[in-house]
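so i finally got all the pieces together for this one. its two components total, 665 residues if u count the protein bits. some of the lines might not be protein, just check the labels. i wanna see the whole assembly predicted at once instead of chain by chain like last time, that was a mess tbh
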Amino acid sequence: MFANWTFGRRLAAAFGFAGLTLLVIVAVAYYSTQTLIENADWRSHTHQVRNDLAALLSRITDAETGQRGYIITGDDSYLAPYQSALTEIPRIFNEVQSLTSDNSRQQERFAELKPLIDSKLAELRQTIDLRRTQGFDAALPVVSSSSGKTSMDQMRVIFADADKDESALLETRNNAAHASAGLAMNVIMWGGLFGVIIVGLIGWFITVSLGRQISTAVSQVQSSSAELQAAANQQATGIKEQATSMTEITTTITELLATARQIAESAQRVSQIADQTATSAHSGDGTVGIAHDSIGAIRRQVDMIVNHMLALGKKSQEIGSVLDIVSELAEQTNILSINATIEAAGAGEAGRRFAVVADEIRKLADRVADSAKEIRTLIDDVRASVNTTVMATETGSKAVDAGSQQFGDVAASFKAIARLVATTTEAAREIELSTKQQSTAVEQVNIAISNVAQAAKESEASTGQTLQTASQLASLSKDLLRLVRAA
Amino acid sequence: MSASDFHISEQAVELRRAFDRSFVELQRFEPVATEDFLSIHVGGEPYVLRLTEIAGLFVDKKVTELPTRVAELRGVAAFRGAMVPVYDLAPLLGYSPSKATRWMVMAATARVALAFDAFDGHFRFPLAAIASRPESNSQDHIRQIVRADGGIRSIIHLPSVIAAIRNQVPEAAPKKEH
């Protein structure tokens, strides 16, 4: 029920309950004290009434004493009590009548007493007047009569009854006062004891409840302070590493700045060289164009040479065909001459001259065949040379074509080079500008890094302070835990 | 005109002159004792044939093959109006059969044609250059040799070759003779 209550609520509830208990005790004590005070007042009131009754009787007695002294002595100085009583008696009578206004029996007695007092005072005045006017002897009979004594006795009885009633009231009010005082004492003593017990229980409850919770919280605070301490240590280590890294970064950035400046200078030189290259590329483009035209003329000449060589090869082939016929004729002639020689030999002496002719024909055929073979060899050499020349020329033509194409490619490459060089120039300028901007940015970064390094140093100091605070917090939590557990 | 053309023209002129001169010089020189031969190649080796032993030289004759058990018989061909059997000279001389035999000669003593690989030409050797093979006998086809051009060439004895052919076909040969 109380687990989810806050400290304030628990304390408010505990102190509220204790205060309520004390309030009840105080209320009861107040009521008892009030009753005791009222009873004391009533006792004082009763004492006042009894004193007034006694004073009233005393004043009546003083008046009678003064009256008798004056009558006996005739000295007016003896009338002083009488005179004083004349003023005091009505006052005291009215006072005591007022004090007992709530008591009907006492009012009845005072109503009965009033005529008696008036009668007594009238008798005293009569006797004093008689003494003053007529002398002692005139007043003596009146004094000696029993009327005065009778009235005094009646009044004494009334006063005695009234005092008796007041005494009884005093007794009753004393008992009530004692009862009220006892009640007040009991309330104060037992209520105080009860309050002490209640406060003790509340204190124990608060101590146990809050102590346990505070102990748990303090344990958590101690754990957290330990973690905070460890984190502060790690943070301090990290900040030291960060400071070291910042120093390295600053060094690297300084080197980077120097490198960026070198790059800017190199980019500027590249831009200049690119301009020169662009000029050379334009010049080379023109030269390549002229060379391309020359290559075209060479190609046409080579084509012409190829055509002539092909024609020569064709003619050589035709010569070879004719030569084959010649060779075949020579071979057939040779065969015929041999056969003629054979036939001539078979003819004997008659064929001898024919044999000579046949032999010469055979020799001629042999020499023709040899010449044909030689011509064949020459023709073959010519054809081989033609073929070689044609192949070489075709190769040259292809080379010229390739060269022409390559020159075209070279021209395109020169144009591309010029275009790329222009792009390179622009890029180099952009690089130069960008590198300068980069240098500026790197300088700003360097400044920022310096600021960060400074901040890291400050963080290091702050972390040291945090570490110290965490250590103090850990120590404080230990002390608090010790205090709580000791409590 | 190139140098080769000049050379060929001069050669033709020289040929013409030599041909004409040969008839003029024929009367001034006494002929030396010589013998005519045909130089051929059989089985890749050089041989010579006596011109007197052959009846004619032929080239590129169409040979009609015949079914026969005689390995040397290539078939028959027409020579000067007559059908003549054609034999391969290579196996007759102990070589393996020739693959291409466009040249052939017809024997003078029999109607038999002999085919061979290649024909080199007609040569005339002095008789002093001809010598007999010491170890040869009457059955050999090579009985003489001739020294020519720094080398030695074997002379094929065609009558023994013809005799060998006849020995292979003894029954057919007499009928053809009659």
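Confidence is low (pLDDT under 50) at residues 172-178 of chain B.
The interface with chain A takes residues 4, 8, 11-12, 15, 18-19, 22-23, 26, 36, 38, 51-52, 54-59, 108, 121-122 of chain B (CB under 8 Å).
anyway lmk what u think
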